[in-house]
Structure formats: structure tokens, C-alpha cells
Amino acid sequence: MLVLNKKSFSENADIDENDFIKFSLSPDNKLVPDLHNNLPGKSIWVPANKEMMKYIQGREDVKAHFGVTPLFTNELVFLIQKILRKKILSGISLAKKAGYLAIGLDTIKTELIEKKHCLIVVAKGAKSLKNYSFFSSTSISCFENLLYQRDLEKSTGKNNVKYVGILSKNFKKTIQVDLNKLKGFMETD
After folding, report:
1. Contact 87/35 with Cβ under 8 angstroms?
2. Residue 103: enclosing H or E segment and its boundaries?
3. pLDDT digits (tens, 9 = 90+) for 100-150
4. How far from 57 is each of 30, 65, 93, 125, CA to CA, in Å?
5. In 126, 133, 134, 179, which residue has its Cα 20 to 30 A from 21's Cα atom?
6. Strand partners, 23
């Protein structure tokens, strides 16, 4: 599903704007991802999915909407993944500075015992948490294999970071939206 008008989100309760990526036309007539939602001009919203991105790249209605023919950069999917990773890691870094980040499984478990909401990010190559009943709860969301260990280390300023837990509902919500979008681009990798 392709959304050409932002008004469609308010008219249709079945679609959530957080599940889409906004694209705007740059001055050089290339479609660029607007992940911070602040670029002016005509826009379209595309589901956060690599296959859908490939599908819309050839659609004539998209080209007609913007009034230009060569729309897409060659590395659009790579660019989106890079921007989403950077945005997620910045959010993790902010959560740490605000005191809402648990680093390591033991620290995350301690915080969960205190009944805190938590978003757990597991680095690629780290042991999966899917088989642990301790981490299966409605207040816990877990994302695995979307970020590299070195990225988590850089955003936290610590070494050997494989697991981080975001303990604030506000940080959890904003980071989780971007993790879901990134997951849509990673599922076919």
C-alpha cells in the first residue's frame, strides 16, 4: 500500500503512520527518506519494507505524483538502513545519558524484577532471548540481530555490549518505531 496524501492516515484507522517511511523530493529530483519528518514539499509514505521499496521504484503513479522521471537513488535501501541505525543508536545514547538504559543481561533482569517496562536490543551474534520465559511479557519488547555489537558499544561508551534495555516508556516508544522500520528492511537479508 502506497500513501500519497498524509490525510489518508486520519481517514483510515487501519493504517498507522509509524509503520510507514516518508519520502520527499530533493532539489536534484531524487526521492529521499525523511525519517525525521521535517522535509518540505510533496511527499509519499511507503511501508517500511524492502520488497515494497523495490516495487514502487518503477511505479508510474509515483513518478506522476512528483512530476519527474528519475526518482530514486541507486542505494536507497542501504541509505534508509544507515539512517535508521544512526537514529536508533542516538536514541540509545540519549537513554543512557538520561539514566534509562540497562547494559548487560544481569542489569536488565534486575530492572525487570522492579516491574519496569523494557525494550531489549540484542546485538547480531549474541545469544537469543526467545527461549527465556523471563523475557516474555507484554511489557517487554525484544529486537534481535538488527544492530552490531560494535554499534551498541559505541553508543553506550562501554566494551563488550551485547544486550541493552531501554527502561523509559518514552524512549521505548520512539526507538521501537524505528526498530520496527529497520526490521522491515532487514527481514529479507
Report:
1. yes
2. strand 101-103
3. 999 999 998 888 888 667 899 999 999 988 877 777 777 788 999 999 999
4. 11, 13, 34, 33
5. 126
6. 33, 44
Q: For residue 138, report the phi and psi dihedrals to the nearest 5 degrees.
A: -70, -20
Residues constituting the chain: 189
Q: Phi/psi of residue 69, each to 5°?
A: -95, -60
Structural domains of the chain, ranges and CATH numbers in brackets: 7-74 (no CATH), 85-186 (3.30.1330.30)
Question: What span, in angstroms and rounded, lies between the C-alpha atoms of 44 and 1?
Answer: 11
The dihedral over CA atoms of 168, 169, 172, 174, expressed in degrees to the nearest 10, equals -120
Cell numbers at 164, concatenated: 541493552
**Cell numbers placing 35:** 525519517
Measure the CA–CA gap between 24 and 39, rounded to whole angstroms. 7
Q: What are phi and psi of 37, to 5 degrees?
A: 55, 45
SS3 of 181, please? Answer: helix
Is there a contact between 181 and 88 (Cβ–Cβ < 8 Å)?
no
Neighbours of 184 (CB within 10 A): 21
DSSP H or E stretch at residue 155? helix 149-156
Query: How far apart, in whole angstroms, are the C-alpha atoms of residue 45 and residue 25?
Result: 12
By the 10 Å C-beta count (0-12 exposed, 13-18 middle, 19+ buried), 182 is classed as: buried
pLDDT at residue 5 in the model: 64
